[in-house]
Design brief:
By secondary structure, the protein is an alpha+beta fold. The protein has a 3-stranded mixed beta sheet with strand order 1-2-3, covered by helices on one side. The radius of gyration is 15 Å and the shape is elongated.
C-alpha cells in the first residue's frame, strides 16, 4: 500500500505550486524478501521517470514500513 502527501506553497505572485511530495510505502508479508525490498527501495527513485522529471523542481522523499 502507498500513501502520498504533497505540500503546496503560494509564490510571491499568488500561484500555488507543489514544493514537496512524500510517498510512504507499507508492505505486508515481505518476510523472506525484506532485504531485497529494502535494497530496491534504496535506489528505485533513481530509475523512476516521474521522479527524474520532477526532482529538480520538487523535493520528493519516500519511506518504507513493513507490517
Amino acid at each position: 500500500m502507498g500513501e502520498v502527501r504533497g505540500e503546496v506553497e503560494t509564490t510571491k505572485d499568488g500561484v500555488l505550486i507543489i514544493r514537496r511530495i512524500h510517498v510512504a510505502y507499507t508492505l505486508e508479508g515481505a518476510g523472506s524478501q525484506r532485504e531485497v525490498v529494502e535494497r530496491v527501495h534504496g535506489f528505485h527513485a533513481r530509475k523512476c521517470p516521474v521522479f527524474r522529471s520532477l526532482e529538480a523542481a520538487i523535493e520528493i522523499t519516500t519511506s518504507l514500513e513493513f507490517s
